[in-house]
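Agenda item 2: zinc ion complex prediction
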Amino acid sequence: MSDCLFCKIVAGQIPSTKVYEDDAVYAFLDIEPQAPFHAVVIPKEHIASAAEISPENSAVIARIYEAIAKIAKAEQLENGFRVVTNCGADGGQTVGHLHFHLLARRNLAWPPG
Ligand code: 5GP
Ligand code: ZN
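Presented output:
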């Protein structure tokens, strides 16, 4: 997806502050953090949103959660964290490449509103 912001970040065409990378997953600090620690965890493969997960591409979701557990250990988030995926217009999704917000280091309200 030549036109996709997060594909460009994965390709290094747009700079980002990397917090984790493996063959399938990339994670970087959010440019507009909503918590003292706010990373965006994405599949390297372009998947438009959570609505596009299928048996053909769902293996990467396990890889993303494995990565999140590694990041949480590396960043010492033992006090807890939240993982959020916004999907579609009502879900507040602004970038059309599946991503998981990893938020931590403050007490996060529930329900989120
Ligand atoms: P969404 O609103 O789609 O759930 O999340 C998109 C996230 O990407 C937002 O939290 C936004 O701050 C972040 N974001 C948008 N553009 C950039 C960018 O160029 N660099 C980084 N690091 N984050 C970005
Ligand atoms: Zn993309």
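Discussion summary: The mean pLDDT is 97.
Owner for follow-up: CH.
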